[in-house]
Write a structure and sequence with these properties.
The protein is an alpha/beta fold. It has a single domain, classed as Amidase signature (AS) domain (Amidase signature (AS) enzymes). The chain is about 35% helix and about 15% strand. The chain has 15 helices and 14 strands. The strands form two sheets. The chain has a twelve-stranded mixed sheet with strand order 1-2-4-3-7-9-8-13-14-12-10-11. Helix 9 packs across helix 11 and helix 9 crosses helix 12. The protein starts with 13 loop residues before the first helix and ends in an 11-residue tail after the last helix.
Length: about 500
């Protein structure tokens, strides 16, 4: 017969708890929880070069680290293409800091999925680009390394949080930039610098090995000077990797549509735009109409659904920081080495982090103290309604269109208070953020300007209509109805 001791479970029972005291019981719980094998590391792509490179001319502060990384792939869909990666995308053996004091000294062991796919397709990674501190601003001025200046006017910002990605396209050797977009962080810098910026359908590009903010808002984005090149990059990066639980149930890419293109204008967004932005977009719409595009209004207004992005972002980002973000069905990669460094780094360097990050963290902790999960839960319910509203607005049409940003690029601010800097960095994301919530693909295209700063028009398509967006943008560019602004490199 088995003795009582031999039948005792591995976790302590209430009797032992009482005997040994609370501290010992808690210690046993911790030991039991930590007894599993370590989480797997990111794989590292086989490369022939993986090193930091000599600095090059960079008047915009776009690059935080010049690198030379290429794979044993002399051919491929992206052979000969130079790429920059945002400072939140892992390259094994190369420091990753996400523009923050919190991640100084962090070196990932392996590559993000997007890094691996780019290298295997023959691309060369040439730069790691500047970004807002942990991606918590849309302005481009909260980085540990200083603000990213606009290639069109160094007195104004390139935008954020992927401002360095956008500005890097004006440097020698960079053809494509990879950024991240949680609220507009690819599209807004694209608009302010006069290039193309795509936030794909949620989940089409795996997020594995990339610093996240909130799992339902995280998107990898692509910036380039031509829709055709963006399409080539999307085809390389697209598809599940078996590791990212964000991979979404939207189905596969849609076939090309036939017949005239119908674009619906979100008229409410024009009412809130600055005069020059509104005038340039209205002129572009008239040009599109003259070229055979059907242009009509829609009463859809994302603002009618409330601050859904903020509801998800504030509490969701806190969960990500703590390593307890919402679970997903299917496979999931937990980036343990990043999580440990990030959590400790934030605690150790909190007073050196941006005001936008500190305000968001304080708000999240206060919400948790008052009504834990209430804002996030209501945000999830509102997300469902917002997805349905966007789908309804697209019924019978190809795309929605609205200004990417309500204003031109912001000036490099000196002497701003913490509240002023944070408010303006979040305030420019009102048009872009809702489509992170809904997961619809959105593409910022440069509106033709003869003088002054660039302005972007944002096209929004049905889920998985990414290729349709790029084809339409290429049609506009080919007809000289859209033109990117040129800056000498």
């Amino acid at each position: 017969m088995m003795s009582r001791d031999s039948r005792e479970p591995s976790l302590p029972c209430a009797e032992r708890h009482s005997r040994d005291g609370d501290g010992a019981f808690v210690e046993e719980l911790c030991e039991a929880a930590a007894a599993l094998p370590p989480a797997p590391l990111l794989p590292r792509t086989v490369t022939r070069v993986r090193a930091e490179a000599a600095p090059q001319k960079d008047p915009y502060n776009a690059v935080v680290r010049w690198v030379d990384v290429s794979a044993d792939a002399d051919s491929g869909a992206l052979a000969g293409i130079g790429v920059s990666l945002k400072d939140s995308v892992a390259i094994g053996g190369i420091p990753l800091t996400a523009g923050s004091a919190a991640l100084q000294g962090f070196i990932p062991s392996g590559d993000a999925t997007v890094t691996r796919r780019l290298l295997e397709a023959g691309a060369s990674i040439r730069a790691v680009t500047n970004m807002d501190d942990l991606a918590f601003s849309g302005a481009g001025d909260t980085s540990y390394y200083g603000p990213v200046r606009n290639p069109h006017d160094p007195a104004v910002l390139a935008g954020g949080s992927s401002g360095g990605a956008a500005a890097s396209l004006f440097l020698d050797g960079i053809d494509v930039a990879i950024g991240t977009d949680q609220g507009g962080s690819v599209r807004l810098p694209a608009a302010w610098t006069g290039v193309y910026g795509l936030k794909p359908t949620f989940g089409r590009i795996p997020y594995t090995g990339v610093v996240g903010m909130e799992a339902r808002l995280d998107h990898i984005g692509i910036l380039a000077r031509s829709p055709e090149l963006m399409g080539r990059v999307l085809s390389v990066l697209d598809g599940p990797d078996g590791l990212d639980g964000r991979q979404a149930p939207w189905g596969r890419p849609l076939p090309a549509a036939s017949g005239p293109v119908t674009v619906r204008v979100v008229t409410a967004s024009l009412l809130h735009a600055e005069d020059r932005t509104r005038a340039l977009l209205e002129r572009a719409l008239r040009t599109w109409s003259d070229g055979g595009v059907i242009v009509e209004p829609t009463s859809f207004d994302p603002a009618d659904h409330g601050p859904v992005p903020a509801a998800l972002f504030i509490e969701g980002a806190l969960a990500t920081l703590r390593g307890t973000s919402a679970p997903w069905t299917g496979p999931a990669f937990y980036w343990e080495e990043l999580q440990q460094h990030l959590s400790r780094g934030v605690a150790d360097h909190i007073h050196h982090l941006s005001p936008s990050f500190r305000f968001a963290l304080a708000a999240a902790e206060e919400l948790q103290r008052r009504e834990p999960g209430r804002a996030y839960g209501r945000g999830l319910a509102a997300r469902t309604r917002l997805i349905a509203a966007v789908d309804a607005a697209l019924e019978g049409a190809d795309f929605l269109v609205l200004p990417t940003a309500p204003c031109e690029a912001l000036p490099v601010g000196e002497g701003l208070s913490d509240v002023e800097r944070t408010t303006r960095g979040w305030g420019v994301l009102g048009n872009t953020g809702p489509f992170n919530v809904t997961g619809h693909p959105a593409l910022s295209v440069p509106v033709a300007v003869s003088t002054g700063l660039p302005v972007g028009a944002m096209l929004v398509g049905r889920h998985n209509a990414d290729e349709e967006l790029l084809r339409f943008a290429q049609r506009l560019a080919g007809a000289d109805q859209q033109a990117g602004c040129h800056v000498e490199r």
